[in-house]
Design a protein that fits this description.
Layout: E1 2-5, E2 12-13, E3 19-27, E4 38-45, E5 49-50, E6 57-63, E7 68-72, E8 78-79, E9 86-89, E10 94-98, E11 107-115, E12 119-126, E13 130-132, E14 138-145, E15 147-152, E16 158-161, E17 164-168, E18 175-179, E19 185-193
Antiparallel strand pairs: 1-17, 2-3, 3-4, 4-11, 5-10, 6-9, 6-11, 7-8, 7-10, 12-19, 13-18, 14-17, 14-19, 15-16, 15-18
């Protein structure tokens, strides 16, 4: 299991200059939006504007701060609750906006991108203890608040401090986690290859 300090990852500016993105994990490794089977990013949205057009990609977005609004297919943007995952088609015209209180500091979100014919997945928020097991899949964890202790299949406990991520590839062994600070929140991206046949 790899532990990653997310603030040390390269921050790549959006084409529209509305934010920056840090790629936590992808398959294949280091793949961009056009070539990835899946990708988990931490994104800082600093101002409103349109999202990139990503046909063939299923997107799931989860804000880790309040103040984000999303609009689809020309509809006016509406608020998205903190730690509430929103799934949408990457080809759908999508715009984001920030409320007046957030506009000065921006909003951070976890993004999960899934190539539709190759992968499926979900984004989950855990304010407390939990356990995940995804045979054949990958689990990417991000400590959005506080800190957690991770234990893989009864092994040695590993700390995951706020702002750090963990990648649990080929997650056959169960992965348990428990907060060690009050007011903690763990975000889990769970990815599975699409079964064909």
């Amino acid at each position: 299991m790899d532990i990653i300090r997310v603030d040390r990852l390269p921050a790549v500016p959006w084409k529209n200059k509305g934010g920056t993105t840090r790629a936590i994990a992808a398959s294949p490794p280091d793949a961009d939006f056009d070539t990835a089977d899946w990708r988990v990013d931490l994104t800082d949205i600093i101002r409103g504007g349109p999202f990139s057009h990503l046909p063939g990609i299923d997107r799931i977005l989860l804000p880790v701060a309040a103040g984000l609004r999303l609009g689809f297919d020309g509809a006016d943007p509406t608020p998205v609750a903190i730690f509430d995952a929103t799934a949408f088609d990457g080809a759908t015209p999508t715009t984001c906006d920030l409320d007046a209180q957030t506009a000065g500091r921006g909003v951070q979100v976890v993004n999960l991108l899934l190539r539709r014919d190759r992968t499926t997945g979900r984004l989950l928020g855990f304010p407390g203890a939990g356990r995940l097991r995804e045979p054949g899949g990958t689990v990417v964890l991000y400590a959005a608040r506080g800190g957690f202790t991770l234990v893989e299949d009864g092994g040695r406990p590993v700390p995951l401090d706020v702002g750090h991520a963990a990648v649990h590839a080929d997650a056959v062994a169960p992965l348990a986690f428990e907060p060690y600070r009050p007011w903690s929140m763990l975000i889990a991206a769970v990815i599975q290859p699409t079964v064909t046949g």
